[in-house]
Design goal:
Layout lengths: L1 H10 L4 H33 L4 H45 L4 H8 L4 H6 L17 H44 L7 H42 L6 H16 L6 H31 L1
Helix pairs in contact: 2-3, 2-7, 3-6, 3-7, 6-7, 6-8, 6-9, 7-8
Length: about 290
């Protein structure tokens, strides 16, 4: 059995980039389930407005179980997200310098499940970064700039949707509060249940607000890093410092949902291509002058 497992492992050796994408995809699946649990909680609270007796008890139990489920999904997903970002950092450094990071990679791979390891093969791509710079600090700067460009726009888009979602939830919570006030005097047991339901519905709202704040803050910080990298020559220490800042900001940000990425992908590709052409034109002007 051990020999068979080793043989299977030898057949599955995805790149660091593909592995990071697979790990983050796995994390997104758990975060998606967390969102589903929050949606169940909110639905249960809405239905509780016109419910009483055993149905009210069942809805309260459903809301409580779904919020426990949301916490469990988040608890499972968060380490996967951090692992994915650790792999991204390693991939950027390897892509920029072509150094051997096998020692660090072995430790990170040990945290990846066999199923995710096999799924990673479908994420293989040869043109993940568009830079044509030679290996070294210049290539690292190009990669970080491109990453900042993409994440800044995607975070901003996600922030706008999260704000709209949070505003909708807040409006519905206000409606629920005023709807439940007349019902609080229908019996002590029911009153306690309805207050508990209002408490539970605050978790989806706070989650949506925290995401909006995190995406908005991260988008702003990515823009600052991009501006600091600029086009003029920078020292190795400055490039590494900005790369480290980028890595911290990215790892502390909520993951971008696939539907948001896919919706903006073609548009951002065109914008990035336009930006590269403009930069090449500026470099040509400087060289001529």
């Amino acid at each position: 059995m051990v020999e068979q497992h080793i043989d299977d492992y030898e057949l599955v050796r995805p790149s660091i980039q593909a592995l990071s994408s697979a790990v983050l995809e796995d994390a997104k699946a758990f975060f998606q389930w967390k969102s589903v649990c929050h949606a169940i909680t909110f639905s249960a609270v809405v239905l509780s407005i016109c419910s009483s007796g055993i149905w009210l008890y069942l809805l309260a139990l459903t809301a409580a179980v779904s919020e426990i489920g949301a916490w469990v999904m988040g608890f499972i997903a968060e380490p996967k997200k951090q692992l994915g970002h650790d792999l991204i950092r390693l991939n950027i450094l390897q892509n920029a310098y072509r150094q051997n990071f096998s020692h660090e990679l072995v430790y990170l791979k040990n945290l990846v499940s066999d199923s995710v390891l096999r799924k990673a093969l479908k994420f293989e791509t040869d043109d993940y970064y568009s830079t044509t710079a030679i290996l070294g600090d210049e290539r690292l700067r190009d990669i970080v700039q491109e990453s900042c460009f993409w994440t800044q726009h995607l975070y901003w888009t996600c922030m706008k949707y999260a704000v709209a979602h949070a505003a909708t939830l807040l409006a519905l919570v206000v409606v629920l509060v005023f709807s439940l006030f007349p019902l609080l005097g229908t019996g002590n047991d029911f009153a306690v249940l309805r207050v508990a339901l209002l408490f539970l519905v605050s978790f989806p709202l706070l989650d949506s607000i925290s995401k909006a704040v995190a995406w908005g803050t991260s988008s702003h910080r990515m823009r600052l890093i991009d501006d600091q990298l600029g086009n003029s020559p920078l020292s190795s220490a400055t490039v590494f410092s900005l790369f480290a800042t980028y890595a911290v900001v990215a790892s502390n940000s909520p993951l971008v949902p696939d539907r948001r990425f896919n919706a903006k992908r073609a548009f951002l590709n065109a914008l990035w291509k336009e930006r590269q052409e403009n930069q090449e034109g500026e470099h040509h002007k400087w060289n001529c002058s």
